[in-house]
Design brief:
The chain is α+β, with helices and mostly antiparallel strands. It has a single domain, classed as Electron Transport, Fmn-binding Protein, Chain A (Pnp Oxidase, Chain A, Roll), CATH 2.30.110.10. It has 4 helices and 7 strands; from the N terminus they run αββββαββααβ. Strands 2-1-5-6-7-4-3 form a 7-stranded antiparallel beta sheet. The chain is globular and about 35 Å long. The two termini are about 20 Å apart.
Length: about 140
Amino acid sequence: MTDQPSDSDGPDESAFATLGNEAFVSLSTFRKTGEAVATAVWIARDGEALIVTTPQESGKIKRLRNNPRVEMRSCSRFGKVKEGALPVSGTAEILSAQASAGPLATVIPRKYGLEYRIIMAVERLRDRQKKPRVLLRITSAS
């Protein structure tokens, strides 16, 4: 399977696939009240799915355990959503810790390269330990 959307993809599928090419995506997860909480994340494509990495104990993981629905929009490094960016819906699956050490774990480092390695090193130094990270596998809601 290629990383490019085919001509047969509908508009939602094309928008979903295109998000994997963005440098940053505003990922919204939902509280039990239905209130959206947005966070800027790195994102990469793996076939028809999108992959995100996040600390295992982050708020988004807690929210996803209650509701796997997500919305994504293209954004800046600091979470500013690009003008005219439309929300794209998806469903997130929290992958096991073993998946974070497997082949999927290379998707984001491969895309972001040295920048990813530097940020992860700074995170480890800042936290004085390596906090476990998990992967989110996001599929299109349509």
